[in-house]
């Protein structure tokens, strides 16, 4: 049971620098302007008490707006690049340690004031905010000219020819641009002006052959907003403006929705001695990169994997919740950025593992290895030096049953068209894997049942039965008893023994204490007083949310930005995306849909570091 506590709630790696007293703040916070749109931050790690350090909370504020922005920095990084900032803008920045309970410990460091660069001297690509000087100034390339009045105040001041459409004179570009004057004046979109100006009056670049187009997201926003207005006036969205032809800011420099020029910033580079973790036994322990050689002088992870396999039978006995962590930090040690020496597990971890597992080893005729004796100076006490230990276990974990399953991504093609993305197994028919479910769906009897179309709800019922939706608290939501009975009645003449023999009595009935999928009430579509929030995970924009009638108003409960490095950033406010979502809600195939995007730069996040965005929402009647 203790081992399951350890596995279910996860173990986060922490560096424990033991001293009595309270935690100190990070010291010597240094900030350097590295380009017109980015700042490089470094700081010294704090001296911590036995409490576990989870990471850092970073706050930065543009001095002019005083609008605070916050981001999370993972544990083993004490340097960070803030990107997508405004050139020539003053910022105030501070940082504080973040503890394993999600709360700050101690106080923030002192504010550090810094200003981003105002010219292109240290930037890797073109300047977006050239100063108001003549074209002959050394800071303005000779092939650039002051931007036309129709595009003033959009985010950059100088333009160049030829433009995106290879037009070589300002008169030619201005004449075609004027065709869209009425559309701009309609105010159908707040980004249309920037979109058109970046096409016809391209931002100035150091190289006259370099054309900076608008970003794909800007095009999509302009098309989404203005296409209805164009259609009402007898026009369509021009083919030459097809959004698929414009770049994504993570791939190529482009003009964003506020006229700023995005920078393609290289991600933080992991030290050369570190390699990705590929040892299954050591996954889910809080780190994803390893550093070799290890405690036993193995030079490669493959060598270490062969040696740690000897302990696999002992780990399987679950003799101690600390054993797996102890072995992995010795054989497959984590890579700690900015620390050259290997950090060993704490003595308390060694003693807990030995206390639980040595009796089993003795009964099998083995002794605890001398090289792992807990009294060795290699395993320091938590209060006397740097060492590694797992997160304190949650006492509520004792309620986890030995058969507890976990949510897993829905990989069944037949069911992925429905509005859910995660499932949990085993199901009510005791299928233990999605492969078994796919085999059942591909069977001849099931294929004939699907082709019969005996019930309009058949697909939803089959998917909810074979691949039940996994809720945010890790529980399955099976079909309701009444839903099962309705589908059986509809398909009574389908000659399907599998469905005819299905006992609907074993399915739950919908109540405040027991949730299930029913028709027309489906918690999948977040309708009704008993529903749980839906969860949508998207890797592309726009993000699409769906609800079934009679609910037509969306309520966004939570938006999480998930980075490739494992960091999860919770948006402090959902008001902007909620306004955008309900502002363009529409009926599609009998359901209500809304679309919205997330402006990463508002949260100090580089788009190329983002893996997915998770949205939790529900619906209400209007």
UniProtKB/TrEMBL annotation:
A GO cellular component entry from the record: cytoplasm
GO terms, molecular function: Wnt-protein binding
Pfam families per UniProt: fn3 (PF00041), Fz (PF01392)
GO biological process: canonical Wnt signaling pathway; non-canonical Wnt signaling pathway
Signal sequence region: 1-18
Residue numbers spanned by region Disordered: 122-141
Cited Gene3D superfamilies: Frizzled cysteine-rich domain (1.10.2000.10), Immunoglobulins (2.60.40.10)
Span of domain FZ: 149-257, 273-390, 402-529
Disulfide bridge partners, by residue number: 151-197, 188-226, 219-243, 274-335, 282-328, 319-357, 346-387, 350-374
Transmembrane segments: none
Keyword list, A-Z: Developmental protein, Disulfide bond, Signal
Domain Fibronectin type-III residue range list: 25-119
Listed Polar residues bias regions: 122-140
Protein name as it appears in the record: Frizzled-8
Lineage: Eukaryota, Metazoa, Cnidaria, Anthozoa, Hexacorallia
